[in-house]
Structures are given as structure tokens and as C-alpha cells.
Amino acid sequence: MDMEAQRYVWDGAIPLQIHLHESDVATLPAPPPALILAPRIGYLPLLASHLKSHFSSALPPRLDTIWFEYKGLPLKWYIPTGVLFDLLCAEPERPWNLTVHFTGYPVNILIPCEGEDSVKWSFINSLKEAAYIINGNCKNVMNMSQPDQVELWRSVLNGNLEPYRRVSTKLKLGTVGDEYAAKLNLSGETDFSGQVKAGRVPVRLYVWSVSEDFEDLEDAPQIDSWDKVSYINRPVEIQGGEGGRCFTLHDAVKSLLPEYFLDKSLSNEESLTVGDEHEQRVSSEDASSDRKAEEEVENSSEHITSCYQHDDAEIKLVRIQGIQPKLEIPFSWVANNLMNPEHFLHICVYLKVPQANTMS
Amino acid sequence: MDALSWDGTLTSRDFLVSARAFAEKWKEFNSAFPPWTWVPCPPKQPPCHLPQLQQQQQQGYLSLEKTCLPGSSKKGHVASQEDVDEISLTEGEEELEPVDNATLVETNNSPQVCYYDFHIVYSDSYRVPVLYFHGYYIDGHPLALDEIEKDLPACSAKVLLESKWTFITQEEHPYLNRPWYKLHPCGTSEWMKLLFLGDDSLAKNGVAVEQYLVSWLSVVGQVVGIRIPFEMLNNPKSCN
């Protein structure tokens, strides 16, 4: 695993400008918004104590659970902050303007949140799920000692990579690719053709599909309802490439969206869309840039010539940890280096789907 | 599937097969109950003219809605004749767990009947079925967990108390974008394996995918008070 990349991921943060919703303003004048640098790998409810103290003079006496909203859309608190930003801001907005509420929790849209404990257990349950996907059981996570569990959670809360590494190596969640290379050396468990053993990678895919095309991201329509986002919580099966071709990020995304992409065996032409306009864009304000690591991979990756068919779905954008990786990057690199602390790789995809054509 | 080397999980394709077989058996042996229906997802196919999705790629879940659990209405009060039939039927069956004498939390001092919806959804991560459920009053107002607890068999309520965060969790329904309760699936593959190993005929003849959901629900159903008639549990393969 590239230690540098993991450091960049953990250091990544989103500048937030948080406004108190007018219905929660009990004293005038309305308070100024709070400016916070929120960790990408963190969760919005964890900002509660900071926000309560910032807005304390203006808040009404009786408070409900905290919740956040972006342009009218209540934000799902169990999705990491960086993922919410990558998904909901087609054109990254800096600072990201959010509204905070302390009353009127939308119980029909958001699952309840009882503060830090809810976030912690959501994190641990996701970690368990990731362990199950990788190892076939959750034993290592379930058998974590109490002090280890506390240290793991604290390290995520505070963004401390060192203690996190100490505890998480005990969980033996391994790395994609390296693990299989190691297995090839140590045991005789390869099959006779010497194929790399397939493995499962925990992935959460957030797909926003639009039928109108747009050239610039700032022209992209706003996501105003979670019904417009398909959430796919399905592991990616890494297959050894045929003829030595490695399994790319593009392969991984396509494998999770079979209804949009023809199986290669069924089509003669490649239905890839790897446009030049999807150059990796890294904003200097976003500290999660992996530019150095990215360049290393770019130099060694193959360039795939592409043609896209007009009647296929088109991937407009793939965003992970705020960057747009080249789709032909080996997926194992992406999985090992860009995953979140609970060992899930969160991928945001903007998909343009074709209009239904009338065929004669 | 060889019972000895089987790990207790099933593929999403097997889940489809098992769901179909389960729904048919349920209709046959449990006809007084409403049937389980298959709800395909996504309900709206994406607008493209790719070849028709193969059966194997179809996703969805089994749904049983508007069910009254035994004990989920105040004793002596019924909302409809149908409810009477359901309740008296389950009371007559073999008691598998202690009788639940809990009564509903009342609002406005008038007894209310509660409905429950159950969905059986396949988990790609754990490769097992997962039970999602929620309860609500007739007017649609949802039940909170502590109210649902009162309708659960007594031993479930105790386990719930002890493992608040890992037994029944409230999460988003994978397809419906709304909060539902779910029974946490992380131990499922292990006890399914044990269940099948304990059955001699299965150990001999192999695990039948068709039987998976019946066996699964016979265990999981006990947590929420759904009972499987004894006849459904007989594996047809063993009756030669």
C-alpha cells in the first residue's frame, strides 16, 4: 500500500460554511455562519458540539437531533462528508454552503441519529461488513478488545493515522492484489493455470443518472431528492484479466452496472468512454490531492483508444476522494489507496443514460 | 451443494430460485396468511435498448405486507374479521415460544391494531437473505422500536436490550430509500450451515437451494413472531 496516498486521503478536508436555519434562530440578529474544515473521512453529526457552541446564543432552549441540509436536500449522516460533497456538488463549491437544523428532524427521510454513538456504530457495522466481504467472516472485528475499539474510533474521530494503522493491521483485512501475490508465493493454492485468485472488494457506488446531456459540470441539474441517486452496496469481484490485461477501475464500475453496459463477450466494439475532458482535476484547496501518486500510475498505465456508441450509457464523471482517476487505472491500486477507514471504497458516478429511442 | 463443504451462503441467482420456491410453498401450506409477493427492482427499467435483462440479473425482494403479529392488537379487540382469522390460526399452532401477553401502547385511549410489513432482501455483502421490517398504526403512523419491542416474542426483547446496536438496527431499506428495521445478518451463514448439517437427509442428499429460505425463515421468523407451519419444513427430497 502506498503510505503517502493514505496520508493524503486522511488529510483531505472540505471547507464548510454552515448556516443556522432561520426556524432555529431564537434571537436576532441572526448569527454569522460557522466556518469549519471538515475531514473528508468524517461524518457531519460529529460537528455537533462545535456547532452548538458556535450558535449557542441564538438557539432555542429545546433542541432535537442535529441534521444538515444542502439546497433543500436532507443529508444522510452515515455517508462520509467527502462522499456527500463529491456526489452533490457537481461543480465543487468552496466553501460548501450547508444549512444546519436543531429541530424538526425529518424522520421519514433520515434514519435516527443519537449523536456520536450512532455514527460510531454505523462505522463499526460497516467495518464488520467489509471484513465479511474480504475474509468471509467478521471475527476479527467482533473480537476486537475494548481498548482497541476505542482507539480505532478515536483515531477516525481525530484523523490520527498512526493509531489507526496500529489497530487496523490486527484486523488482517489485507490489501487487494498484494494479498494474492503473497498467496501465490507462500502456498500452492493457485490453480494450474496460475491465475490470480479472485477476491471481493467492499464498494459503495452512488450513481446519479441524467438523461439530458451537459457539457460543463456547472450546468448539471441539482440533485433534489435521494430518489434520483441509486445507491449500490455490492462488492466488486476482481477477476484476473484475460491475456494479462489488468482489471481496471472502468471494469469495476461497469461490473456494478450491468444494466447499462454490455458484457464484452456480447459486443464487438469496446463501449468505453474515456474522454480527454475527464482529465484528473485536483483543486489546490482540497488537501486530498494524490497528484504525486497519480502521476506514477499514469506513466505506467496503458492508453486505451476508445470509441463510444451513441446508444450506450456514458460515464460523465467518476469521483473518488475528490479526484477523478483515469478509468484505466488498475482497480486494485484504487481500492488499496483510496478507501475510507471502514475499508469501503466510495465511488460517485455521474451517468448519462440515453433517451428511449423509437425504433421503426 | 455438498452440506459438509457448504459455507451457509447462497448466490443472488440462488436467492431468486429459493424465493420463488418459498413463495409457492407458503401459498400451499399457509394459505390463511396473505402470500409473499416478489417485487422486482428497479421497478422502472432504464430507458435504453440493451438486450432484455436476463432472468439471472433481475433483482428484487420478497414482500409480506399488512400483517398482524399475534399479540399486536389488544386482547379482545379486532379490526376486521380477517384479523380474527389470522390471530386465531396462529394461536392454534404449536407454541414455539412463550406466549406474548404484551399489549399495545394506546393512543387516545382507543385500542389500535398495528400492521407490519416484512421484506426479505438479498445482501450482496453477506450473501444471505436479510429480514427488513417496520410496523405502523392503521393510520400509517410508524411504530418506534420500543413499541415494536412489545410485539416481539419475549426472548427477542431481551436480546434486543442486551445488544442494542447489533441485533436489530435501523437502516435504510436498500431499495426504498426509507428507514426500516433490519435483523443483522452477520451470523446467518454460520447458523444456516449448522441447521443443514443437523439434518441427516440433507447431509446425505445435499443442500437444496429451494429449501434455503424456508429453513432460514423458520429461525429468523421466531425473532419477529412469524411462524412456519411444520409441513413446510419437510424437505421433499427426504420423502422417497
TrEMBL record, chain A:
Keywords: Autophagy, Cytoplasm, Isopeptide bond, Protein transport, Transport, Ubl conjugation. Its main location: cytoplasm. InterPro entries: Atg5, ATG5_HBR, Atg5_HR, ATG5_UblA, Atg5_UblA_dom_sf, ATG5_UblB. Residues 116-172 form the Autophagy protein ATG5 alpha-helical bundle region domain. GO terms for biological process: autophagy of mitochondrion; cellular response to nitrogen starvation; piecemeal microautophagy of the nucleus; protein transport. It comes from the Eukaryota. Residues 271-304 are annotated as: Disordered. Residues 9-102 form the Autophagy protein ATG5 UblA domain. Residues 200-349 form the Autophagy protein ATG5 UblB domain. The keyword rRNA processing does not apply. Gene3D superfamilies: 3.10.20.620, Autophagy protein Apg5, helix rich domain, Phosphatidylinositol 3-kinase Catalytic Subunit, Chain A, domain 1. Required for autophagy. It is found in: Cytoplasm. GO terms for cellular component: Atg12-Atg5-Atg16 complex; autophagosome; mitochondria-associated endoplasmic reticulum membrane contact site; phagophore; phagophore assembly site membrane. This is Autophagy protein 5. Belongs to the ATG5 family. Residues 275-294 have a biased composition (Basic and acidic residues). GO terms for molecular function: Atg8-family ligase activity. Conjugated with ATG12.
Automatic annotation (TrEMBL), chain B:
It comes from the Eukaryota. Keywords: Autophagy, Transferase, Ubl conjugation pathway. GO terms for molecular function: Atg12 conjugating enzyme activity. Signal peptide: none annotated. The keyword Transport does not apply. GO terms for biological process: autophagosome assembly; autophagy of mitochondrion; protein modification by small protein conjugation. The keyword Transferase applies. One of its GO terms (cellular component) is cytosol. Belongs to the ATG10 family. This is Ubiquitin-like-conjugating enzyme ATG10.
